[in-house]
Amino acid sequence: MVIKAPMTGWLSDWANLLLRWAHFIAGIAWIGSSFYFIWLDRALAPPETPKPGVEGDLWMVHSGGFYQVEKRRPGPGEVPPVLHWFKWEAMLTWLTGIALLTLVFYLSSAYLLDPGVSRISRGAAIATGIAIVLFSWPVYDGLWRSSLARMPALANAISLLLLGAVTLLACRLFSGRAAFMHVGALLGTIMVANVWRRILPAQQEMLDATRAGRQADFTLGERAKQRSVHNSYVTFPLLFIMLSNHFPATYASPVNWLVLFLLFVAGAAVRHAMIGRGRGARWALAPAGLALAGAIFFATPKGAAARAGTAPSDSTPSFAAVRVVIAQRCQPCHSQYQSDHTFGPAPGGVTFDSPESVARLAERIRIRAVETKTMPLANKTGITDDERALLGRWIAAGAPLR
Ligand code: HEC
User: Fold this and answer.
1) Of the candidates 370, 369, 384, which has an alpha carbon nearest to the alpha carbon of residue 333?
2) Ligand 1 pocket check: which of 342, 368, 371, 383 to mutate, most ligand atoms within 8 Å of Cβ?
3) If you measure from the C-alpha of residue 347 to the centroid of ligand 1, how many angstroms do you get, rounded to a whole number?
């Protein structure tokens, strides 16, 4: 099956911009409110004079106003006339995220695949991508509803193992950036389904009981809390994934799956140190630091790529030779007079039309074309390793315009 790429040009550019903007706003509202409630739960103290049904209260001041908040367990029949829910932030973040994933990776042929990674067909890649996102929830939810969930350490280990396996699979099939984003979509889907399928229904059930004049079963709330805690661990790693496409060293490393996995561990451990209970929680900063150091180590180019970028050399190529490589391999996209319009004008804000622009961007050229080999994109223009090495030697010699 051949799938053409129907969405290119200004229309997809604007759709991309507007979706990304909305995704960002909804995500901030979602994560912001959940951080706020995490903080609230920790800051609440039992009221000085005990009040029936009140578990804790506190005072806050913000933008000129004073606020008093009480956390309570409503008794039978005690239904507030207006109750504010927090659910649309999560749903909107997910909807805009899935739309973005579809637009960037499925409707355009630019970013999904990299022939340097795998030779899988577009159709198969799209089917795999959708399957990864769709099946993540039933597998995770099934695990945490099974009897294994009574042994959280084991269930956590299995969850991490599965995540590692999917990450490895995605990184072996898709371009690095697409692989990272699919892992992000998987995590985001689990988070939203936790909210909509487990947390909200539990809240609704407690509310219904109260409304019917019965005593609500507050253990429902405690079970929902477990999912909410999971979500809080996933938040930092997911935010990294949202930024990851700006950092080729992470997604283009030959062991990119390991880099992503280590950053996941680092982000989750930082979360534990920040809001984990008990005195030991701060110690989670140690594994966080270790995982981060590991990620940095594995993301740093080694061997030939690193040497090409730094080694002093006896034969500095002439700028004329460099110019030929740039013209053939880069300027089809990076030029005012581009022949490949797939990515719109000046992709990444870069054109190489003047010698000065090439010299000015030498450092970025080294990172993208010599070290991480993420340019030319998916090696569309067929640059050779010798040409990359030539660029590397020229930059190591100070990028002279001679
Ligand atoms: C097929 C089109 C295409 C070709 C060919 C291409 N690029 Fe790019 N380039 C892009 C796109 C798309 C972006 C923006 C996305 C990104 O940064 O990955 C970009 C961004 C960049 C950036 C800016 C982002 C940053 O990391 O600083 C640099 C520098 C760059 N390319 C260098 C090169 C070099 C050097 C070559 C030739 C060896 C090249 N590109 C060939 C499509 C291309």
Assistant:
1) 369
2) 368
3) 6
What is the reported pLDDT for 4?
47
10-residue averages of pLDDT along the chain (402 residues): 53 91 98 92 91 92 96 89 94 98 92 93 97 97 95 96 98 97 98 97 93 89 89 97 95 96 97 85 93 95 63 79 97 95 88 96 95 93 96 95 90
CA 201 to chain CA mean position, Å: 27
| Cα-to-centroid distance, 338 and ligand 1 (Å) | 13
Cβ atoms < 10 Å from Cβ of 387: 19
Cα–Cα distance, 333 to 326 (Å, whole number)? 10
Rounded distance between C-alpha atoms, residue 303 and residue 306, angstroms? 6
Integer angstrom CA distances of residue 326 from 201, 202, 216, 347: 58, 59, 69, 15
The atom of ligand 1 lying closest to the CA of 388 is: 38
Question: Residue for token digits 């969405």?
Answer: 7
Q: Residue 10's pLDDT is what? A: 77
- CB of 299 within 8 A of CB of 249? yes
Ligand 1 pocket test target in 331, 374, 377 with most atoms within 8 Å of CB: 377
**Cα dihedral value 351, 352, 354, 360, nearest 10:** 90
Would you say the CB of residue 370 lies under 6 angstroms from ligand 1?
no
Check: CB of residue 313 under 8 Å from CB of residue 295. no
Measured from the Cα of 177, ligand 1's closest atom is: 18
